[in-house]
């Protein structure tokens, strides 16, 4: 296992990819960078007015390359160890090994660090010197940086972003302390081994940055900075894991996806900072003109969120809290477009106002508002956390979204139903269409959920919500028995990405398996082959639902052309274009396994499961599934399913969990252990 050859969680290579965008990333919920990149980013720190707002570039003291000048026959390896959240570069000769490790500390989120270790292997006594190349200059095009006094041996800069997102809006200040990096390091003749540690601390106050840096120094003093980080990752993996007895590339893909997604979520316990959501390329990307500038889309709520929720409801709650804090911006967006309630922006940054550089998406791709509410619904069904809704702003958001959908609908006398006109569906090849099947179905779902929550809280349900939900049109062709994408769609028209197939999952819109099959068969051949990476995962989930396992597998296999070597970085489109480290595609891929192979479905009253997986997988283990405060471990083979309760809530619920066989109604009570 140690060499990483057979370990699906360790990615090793003798060389780096020629395209620097495909280098591994090291991030936590607050700080992120790509290895060997000259900038890092801070969660929620953007610069630039509305159409131009992007993640603010902060100069990175971690951009250091280790070399040994004039050395002959050095073996060189680069490794991303997803188990410990650490990137390492190793130079090895017959006389010594030099190791450079880089990481973003998972639990102390204001810290990033790197270390250099030189270790003698032979009985030589001459000094060994490694050079450290660093192009670091403490300047930024996005911040007005000033130099402060050194602190405990660290250099110090601080400064505000230059331009707020909206006039009079916030301009956050960034404070950074870092250990100065010498040009070289030498292991003296009498030393066998030595390590040097270099810290970078970033925060939005002087007090916090100094506290974090001091904490890092204290851990270095007792030799446990890296081990405390590795331990946090061990605990993270212990709480969630998908392992299967199957092909190595699939196992590697799963570890890669989970590593990059888990890197983006807040650690357990008190955050000490406001979490600002997850963008399609994560924190390591999103500078001006790259990876959608670090904005937050439906990618977070529809594609990444379900995986996070299944394992880490606390982190899922932080994602929803971001949306709640953006509610004021969403109310303004709706008002500006002449509607009531809250309209979430197609692209969101620091204020919840629409920051998409192109007006058409903000004006027409309105399904995002329903996608946001769908995440709230899944969370409510999985956790029964009423506090989020009663006390922490969730109910205001739910009500405002319901209000928006009602005001966005118009009554058609001719068809005797409500229409939603002039939208762009998820399939962005089409715009200004009426009655997008997906948009209308997600609006209906929003309204039904809002009414359900109102009833749970004994709040009178507005008549309008019930009426609009009941009478909104979801296009259906009764003759061909399929859902046209919108009014006037003709079969065979090309489609950019998964759209109507999302009705079946995640929307679980009621339909017969015949209609589900027709939708899949109708849209599969006309969907853009090189389109966004999450598309084929959803076709796979659909075919797995219908137990057409080989057909599902051929869809899922298409995803592998979006995974790059050696660090399993995803590209948005298989030709390499679009966003890089595309967490959206990874989220879709994880859902294909987590909700496809297992058949997990979150409903109002239960967590359903109905497994189906291909011949080359013999066993699937999903550890850490969270449901009503319990943690469950599912072990699924072709013959049997085992469910173990590994943790129960401290205050047990009135009715304990039980597994129920749907066909026979047989019940099996589930207790801890």
UniProtKB/TrEMBL annotation:
One of its GO terms (molecular function) is protein-glucosylgalactosylhydroxylysine glucosidase activity. It comes from the Eukaryota. One of its GO terms (biological process) is carbohydrate metabolic process. Residues 284-490 form the Glycoside hydrolase family 65 central catalytic domain. It is an enzyme of class 3 (hydrolase). Pfam families: Glyco_hydro_65C (PF03633), Glyco_hydro_65m (PF03632). GO terms for cellular component: cytosol. InterPro entries: 6-hairpin_glycosidase_sf (IPR008928), 6hp_glycosidase-like_sf (IPR012341), Glyco_hydro_65_C (IPR005194), Glyco_hydro_65_M (IPR005195). It catalyses: (5R)-5-O-[alpha-D-glucosyl-(1->2)-beta-D-galactosyl]-5-hydroxy-L-lysyl-[collagen] + H2O = (5R)-5-O-(beta-D-galactosyl)-5-hydroxy-L-lysyl-[collagen] + D-glucose. Residues 646-673 are annotated as: Disordered. This is Protein-glucosylgalactosylhydroxylysine glucosidase. The lineage of its organism: Eukaryota, Metazoa, Chordata, Craniata, Vertebrata.
């Amino acid at each position: 296992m140690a060499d990483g050859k057979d370990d699906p969680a360790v990615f090793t290579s003798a060389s780096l990819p020629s395209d620097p965008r495909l280098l591994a990333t090291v991030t936590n919920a607050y700080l992120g960078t790509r290895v060997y990149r000259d900038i890092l980013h801070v969660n929620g720190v953007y610069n630039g007015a509305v159409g131009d707002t992007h993640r603010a570039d902060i100069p990175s003291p971690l951009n250091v390359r280790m070399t040994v000048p004039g050395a002959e026959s050095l073996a060189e390896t680069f490794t991303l160890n997803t188990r410990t959240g650490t990137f390492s570069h190793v130079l090895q000769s017959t006389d010594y090994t030099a190791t450079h490790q880089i990481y973003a500390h998972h639990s102390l989120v204001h810290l990033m660090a790197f270390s250099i270790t030189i270790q003698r292997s032979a009985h030589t006594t001459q000094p060994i010197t490694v050079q450290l190349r660093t192009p670091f200059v403490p300047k930024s095009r996005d911040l007005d940086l000033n130099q402060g006094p050194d602190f405990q041996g660290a250099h110090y800069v601080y400064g505000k972003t230059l331009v707020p997102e909206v006039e009079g809006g916030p301009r956050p200040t960034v404070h950074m302390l870092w250990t100065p990096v010498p040009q070289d390091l030498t292991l003296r003749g009498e030393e066998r081994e030595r390590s040097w540690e270099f810290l970078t601390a970033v925060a939005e106050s002087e007090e916090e940055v100094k506290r974090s840096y001091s904490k890092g120094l204290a851990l270095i003093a007792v030799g446990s900075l890296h081990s405390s980080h590795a331990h946090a990752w061990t605990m993270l993996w212990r709480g969630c894991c998908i392992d299967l007895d199957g092909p190595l590339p699939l196992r590697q893909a799963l570890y890669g996806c989970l590593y990059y997604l888990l890197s983006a979520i807040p650690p357990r316990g008190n955050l000490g900072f406001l979490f600002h959501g997850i963008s399609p390329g994560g924190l390591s990307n999103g500078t001006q003109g790259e990876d959608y500038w670090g904005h937050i889309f439906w990618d977070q709520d529809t594609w990444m969120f379900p995986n996070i929720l299944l394992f880490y409801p606390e982190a899922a709650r932080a994602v929803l809290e971001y949306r709640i804090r953006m509610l004021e911006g969403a109310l303004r967006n709706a008002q500006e477009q002449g509607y009531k309630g809250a309209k979430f922006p197609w692209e969101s940054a620091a204020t919840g106002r629409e920051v998409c550089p192109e007006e058409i998406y903000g004006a027409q791709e309105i399904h995002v508002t329903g996608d946001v509410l769908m995440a709230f619904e899944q969370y409510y069904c999985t956790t029964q956390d009423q506090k989020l809704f009663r006390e922490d702003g969730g109910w205001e958001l739910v009500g405002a979204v319901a209000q928006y959908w009602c005001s966005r609908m118009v009554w058609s006398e001719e068809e005797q139903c409500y229409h939603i006109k002039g939208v762009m569906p998820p399939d962005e090849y089409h715009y200004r269409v009426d009655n997008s099947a997906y948009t209308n179905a997600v609006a209906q779902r929003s309204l039904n959920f809002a009414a359900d929550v109102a009833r749970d809280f004994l709040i009178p349900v507005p008549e309008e919500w019930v009426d609009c939900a009941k009478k909104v049109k979801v296009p259906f062709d009764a003759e061909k028995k399929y859902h046209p994408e919108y009014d006037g769609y003709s079969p065979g028209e090309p489609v950019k990405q998964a759209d109507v197939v999302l009705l079946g999952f995640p929307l679980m819109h009621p339909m017969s398996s015949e209609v589900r099959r027709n939708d899949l068969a109708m849209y599969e051949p006309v969907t853009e082959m090189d389109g966004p990476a999450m598309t084929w995962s959803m076709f796979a989930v659909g075919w797995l639902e219908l137990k057409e396992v080989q057909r599902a597998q051929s869809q899922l296999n298409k995803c592998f052309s979006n995974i790059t070597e050696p660090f399993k970085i995803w590209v948005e489109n298989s030709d390499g274009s679009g966003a890089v480290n595309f967490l959206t595609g990874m989220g879709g891929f994880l859902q294909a396994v987590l909700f496809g192979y297992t058949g997990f479905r979150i409903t109002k009253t239960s967590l359903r499961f109905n497994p189906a997986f291909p011949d080359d997988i013999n066993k699937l283990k999903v550890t850490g599934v969270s449901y009503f405060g319990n943690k469950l471990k599912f072990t699924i083979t072709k013959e049997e399913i085992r469910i173990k309760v590994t943790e129960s809530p401290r205050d047990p619920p009135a009715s304990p969990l039980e597994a129920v066989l749907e066909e026979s109604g047989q019940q099996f009570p589930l207790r801890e252990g």
